[in-house]
Amino acid sequence: MDAAEFRKRGKEMVDYVADYLEKIDKRQVFPDVEPGYLRPLIADCAPEEPESFEDIFKDIEKIIMPGVTHWHSPYFFAYFPAASSFPALLADMLCGGIGCVGFSWAASPACTELETVMLDWLGKMINLPQEFLAGKDGQGGGVIQGSASEATLISLLAARTKTIRRVQSEKPELTEAEIMGRLVAYASDQAHSSVERAALIGAVKIKNVPSDDTFSVCGSALKKVLDEDKAAGLIPFFFCATLGTTPCCSFDKLLELGPICNKENIWMHIDAAYAGSAFICPEFRHLLNGVEFADSFNFNPHKWLLVNFDCSAMWVKKRSDLIGAFKLEPLYLQHHHQESGNFTHWQIPLGRRFRSLKLWFVLRMYGVKGLQEHIRKHVRLSHQFEHLVLQDERFEICAEVVLGLVCFRLKGSNKLNEALLKSINEAKKIHLVPCHLREKFVLRFAICSRTVESTHIKFAWQHISQLATDLLKTWKQNHHQQ
């Protein structure tokens, strides 16, 4: 493909993507395929001779689309928003076109510098303390990771290194292996599984801190666990606080937890993967109060801020904590402006894409006010769904509805609710996923699509309500027969 054909085919692809997104509500939200559907549809081996773009293009609808779960459909209410917008897509095209691998300032100065400035822009939008911003001569700063899971892992590994060095300076008789064997990380029993996975990769113990009746961790719960572990000779070193838990969007109590972590020399990382985007709205910023006690903080613009995946924003108070843990500079990576920044010391992989272009395009083309309205619209729609649930005495709300997520269920057994979810997803008109809250099997209704409107919420509820009616009728008949 030469430049002339690229121009032609590129325009065709833009038209295809625009049509796909404009008409996505006409597609069934969840596919009708079974595992292994794709292999029989394509050849066993790569072709020996080149194939035409026309043939490849035809196969998108024939082979790929039948197996796509349409995350951007207004009938998709599962998991979390997978943010997307036309400005972000255009920026991703430019990123792919430039094609730099921005592991250092010299590898592509604009890639490094725009990212630094965009994370300062974003930090100011959520009113992060000045310590987290790079500015011209700050000690902190932001970086774009691939996911919140990476941000948690990076924070835990940096905390591990920092703690080992501190303990060795205090107790030189202890070996690194002995210290490692005593290290303990902590997170809420509602925290994302990626925190446990980070501890697994980091080869350290991890313990769950019990959450309260609102599914939040409070200071007294953390202190109790810390006191027990310190008495047993263990070394607490890392706590991951969650703002917007995956099951029900609950918020750990930072103002209680932060001072404890600071006093005990425990690195506090804040995982606000989904909820963090909402902090750009003044009415939700109070949920971030206490961030001043944290060592690192992360949220995902690719979840709710109209920046398509992947773009996970992470800030640290002292970038030297990351650089000190990960810095390796072989000769082939050195250049004459080393002090100007090498983001490779802030992450797991060496290479990195020019992801800050997506932030630059979206923040400029929507503006803060446009993005605030997007968040507020989703919150309004979640309360609309909550209101519909509350009007039906057969159902119950299982957690406070704060930011765009409604946890609900039929009053009754877990098996009844499992059957309801099964009937919802088998009908394939809308798509939901469940969670467990304590011992209850709960349905999660997340407001996800950029294009979702009140009519889609009403349709979803009418569909759920009718399926519940049919299910309860069958359930009662079976129970009566038994």
UniProtKB/TrEMBL annotation:
<comment type="pathway">
    <text>Catecholamine biosynthesis; dopamine biosynthesis; dopamine from L-tyrosine: step 2/2.</text>
</comment>
<dbReference type="InterPro" id="IPR021115">
    <property type="entry name" value="Pyridoxal-P_BS"/>
</dbReference>
<dbReference type="GO" id="GO:0004058">
    <property type="term" value="F:aromatic-L-amino-acid decarboxylase activity"/>
</dbReference>
<dbReference type="Pfam" id="PF00282">
    <property type="entry name" value="Pyridoxal_deC"/>
</dbReference>
<dbReference type="GO" id="GO:0019752">
    <property type="term" value="P:carboxylic acid metabolic process"/>
</dbReference>
<dbReference type="GO" id="GO:0005737">
    <property type="term" value="C:cytoplasm"/>
</dbReference>
<protein>
    <recommendedName>
        <fullName>Aromatic-L-amino-acid decarboxylase</fullName>
        <ecNumber>4.1.1.28</ecNumber>
    </recommendedName>
</protein>
<dbReference type="InterPro" id="IPR010977">
    <property type="entry name" value="Aromatic_deC"/>
</dbReference>
<keyword id="KW-0663">Pyridoxal phosphate</keyword>
<keyword id="KW-0456">Lyase</keyword>
<dbReference type="GO" id="GO:0030170">
    <property type="term" value="F:pyridoxal phosphate binding"/>
</dbReference>
<keyword id="KW-0210">Decarboxylase</keyword>
<feature type="modified residue" description="N6-(pyridoxal phosphate)lysine">
    <location>
        <position position="303"/>
    </location>
</feature>
<dbReference type="InterPro" id="IPR015422">
    <property type="entry name" value="PyrdxlP-dep_Trfase_small"/>
</dbReference>
<dbReference type="GO" id="GO:0006520">
    <property type="term" value="P:amino acid metabolic process"/>
</dbReference>
<dbReference type="InterPro" id="IPR015421">
    <property type="entry name" value="PyrdxlP-dep_Trfase_major"/>
</dbReference>
<dbReference type="GO" id="GO:0042427">
    <property type="term" value="P:serotonin biosynthetic process"/>
</dbReference>
<keyword id="KW-0127">Catecholamine biosynthesis</keyword>
<dbReference type="InterPro" id="IPR002129">
    <property type="entry name" value="PyrdxlP-dep_de-COase"/>
</dbReference>
<dbReference type="InterPro" id="IPR015424">
    <property type="entry name" value="PyrdxlP-dep_Trfase"/>
</dbReference>
<comment type="subunit">
    <text>Homodimer.</text>
</comment>
<dbReference type="GO" id="GO:0042423">
    <property type="term" value="P:catecholamine biosynthetic process"/>
</dbReference>
<comment type="similarity">
    <text>Belongs to the group II decarboxylase family.</text>
</comment>
